[in-house]
Amino acid sequence: MTDPLDLLDTASLLSEEERDIQRTVRDFLDDRARPHVAGWYDSATFPRDLVPELGKLGLLGMHLYGYGCAGTNAVSYGLACLELEGVDSGLRSFVSVQGSLSMFSIWRWGSEEQRTEWLPRLAAGEAVGCFGLTEPDFGSDPAGMRTRAVRDGGDWVLNGSKTWITNGGLADVATVWARTDDGIRGFLVPRGTPGFTTTDITQKLSLRASVTSSLHLQDVRLPASAMLPEARGLRGPLACLNEARFGILFGAVGAARDSLRAALGYADSRIQFDRPISAFQLTQKKLADMAVALNSAMLLALHLGRLKDRHELRAEQVSVGKLNNVREAIAIARECRTILGGSGISGEYSPLRHASNLESVRTYEGTDEVHTLVIGQALTGRAAYR
């Protein structure tokens, strides 16, 4: 049966394998996550027991090759992110951080010993990873980080802190970026290392079904083998962020689609003035405008996915996708809430939950302002944020 929200038949642009992967992820989430997500959000609980199941399904580091990873193409990974965020941004955030930040940092920049030790466990969901870049005083400007690593004989000693770290309180290993005399370098810090502690951030109004933490490093001593040997300077963490941003630009489409589906279903069943509110012109205008924006965002995501699969995707193009699709998704989720009326503030319906979550998604891994300036630099050749 044709999906009424897929006005432009974007499904026809997918391969059979891509459609099968998307369907498999959707069916799994409909069974194991969607019935419970409102409760997780309400209780600020992340479903830790789902992690091995996500690994068994092949979703963790699914776009990476070898070491137990599924090795799918970029579009398939994006479609999985779309389905995950269609349930809740917290689920997509977990998968993005695990695969595109923690695992990718090891896969791309790590030694063979580091890859062999960590990637199979992370891919299977037997271990959880996090990515420590953002600091309390340095978010958009990671070059100013204060976390420092100094040589002490054959070891490294790390001191500093990171904050707003997804999966931090769950992580068995943290990729921590620190300033050294040789520039910014990455280090793998296993949980249980003396001096390494985490504190979960509470009272969140967004991404409640997700673990967000601060990392504290006080005289954390690591062997030389803990350093990611191939990453030097900001190029290392920024490459990881581009991987995660790619998942976001698909994920935002999922949140928007789920919001619009909820609003359309409600409008068809809600009777006012003796007919469904979906029969009113103002409601149809809202639905039509949102459907056009949703389909445009999906086409943009798919185009960028094809570029990535051809190894032609540029950083400013990722910024276009992240900026546009998250911005459009928030607008759609908020407008859908208006169609739901008073019922829209109930946890029974998803749009306001998606809108709240997307406020975090809009901020992390590059604010609107930063992505705007990345695009501005591509247009003018001038870096306005330096």
UniProtKB/TrEMBL annotation:
<keyword id="KW-0274">FAD</keyword>
<dbReference type="Pfam" id="PF00441">
    <property type="entry name" value="Acyl-CoA_dh_1"/>
</dbReference>
<dbReference type="InterPro" id="IPR036250">
    <property type="entry name" value="AcylCo_DH-like_C"/>
</dbReference>
<dbReference type="GO" id="GO:0050660">
    <property type="term" value="F:flavin adenine dinucleotide binding"/>
</dbReference>
<dbReference type="InterPro" id="IPR006091">
    <property type="entry name" value="Acyl-CoA_Oxase/DH_mid-dom"/>
</dbReference>
<dbReference type="GO" id="GO:0033539">
    <property type="term" value="P:fatty acid beta-oxidation using acyl-CoA dehydrogenase"/>
</dbReference>
<feature type="domain" description="Acyl-CoA dehydrogenase/oxidase C-terminal">
    <location>
        <begin position="232"/>
        <end position="379"/>
    </location>
</feature>
<dbReference type="Pfam" id="PF02770">
    <property type="entry name" value="Acyl-CoA_dh_M"/>
</dbReference>
<keyword id="KW-0285">Flavoprotein</keyword>
<keyword id="KW-0809">Transit peptide</keyword>
<dbReference type="InterPro" id="IPR009100">
    <property type="entry name" value="AcylCoA_DH/oxidase_NM_dom_sf"/>
</dbReference>
<dbReference type="Pfam" id="PF02771">
    <property type="entry name" value="Acyl-CoA_dh_N"/>
</dbReference>
<dbReference type="GO" id="GO:0000062">
    <property type="term" value="F:fatty-acyl-CoA binding"/>
</dbReference>
<comment type="similarity">
    <text>Belongs to the acyl-CoA dehydrogenase family.</text>
</comment>
<dbReference type="InterPro" id="IPR046373">
    <property type="entry name" value="Acyl-CoA_Oxase/DH_mid-dom_sf"/>
</dbReference>
<feature type="domain" description="Acyl-CoA oxidase/dehydrogenase middle">
    <location>
        <begin position="130"/>
        <end position="220"/>
    </location>
</feature>
<dbReference type="InterPro" id="IPR009075">
    <property type="entry name" value="AcylCo_DH/oxidase_C"/>
</dbReference>
<keyword id="KW-0560">Oxidoreductase</keyword>
<dbReference type="GO" id="GO:0004361">
    <property type="term" value="F:glutaryl-CoA dehydrogenase activity"/>
</dbReference>
<dbReference type="InterPro" id="IPR052033">
    <property type="entry name" value="Glutaryl-CoA_DH_mitochondrial"/>
</dbReference>
<dbReference type="InterPro" id="IPR037069">
    <property type="entry name" value="AcylCoA_DH/ox_N_sf"/>
</dbReference>
<protein>
    <submittedName>
        <fullName>Acyl-CoA dehydrogenase family protein</fullName>
    </submittedName>
</protein>
<dbReference type="GO" id="GO:0046949">
    <property type="term" value="P:fatty-acyl-CoA biosynthetic process"/>
</dbReference>
<dbReference type="InterPro" id="IPR013786">
    <property type="entry name" value="AcylCoA_DH/ox_N"/>
</dbReference>
<feature type="domain" description="Acyl-CoA dehydrogenase/oxidase N-terminal">
    <location>
        <begin position="15"/>
        <end position="126"/>
    </location>
</feature>
